[in-house]
Amino acid sequence: MGGAGINGIREMGDVKKEGVKEDPLRPREQGLHVQYAAPDGQSHEGTLLSKIMNNDERLEVNRIAARLAGVSWAQLPSPQAARIWALATVSVQLRDIPGWADKWLPEDDTLLFILFGECEKHASEFFRPSGGEGEKSKATSRVRVAPVVATSATTE
Question: Which pTM does this prediction carry?
């Protein structure tokens, strides 16, 4: 990695972004206001933008993680794999990253994992099932799968 900021890590993915339609009830973009006391004693504050990743961006996270790992994923100790995955994810999902966050995200695991958790929270809220408005509405699964049982009529 060699001292690259979080924006430098993002450049490792090297994919053009495509727009996706916005759902007004579940925003793809969410601001995250962050207050941070850096290890050098300075205080920082700013808003970062979390944007739900499209397919190309999700693949970009995989490419970045593979490049950062430098070895087979199975060879990495689990804490290092988690750190690499968090770095790759925040480098793609977070936008409008201020200079102080660009500098400290790759170095400060506390900052990294808190913001990674916020990214994961935003994604899980965006993709959660919803039954709509009202108390009587029941949350339902957005995906249903049922096995098809072969019968003599379907196998002939």
Answer: 0.74
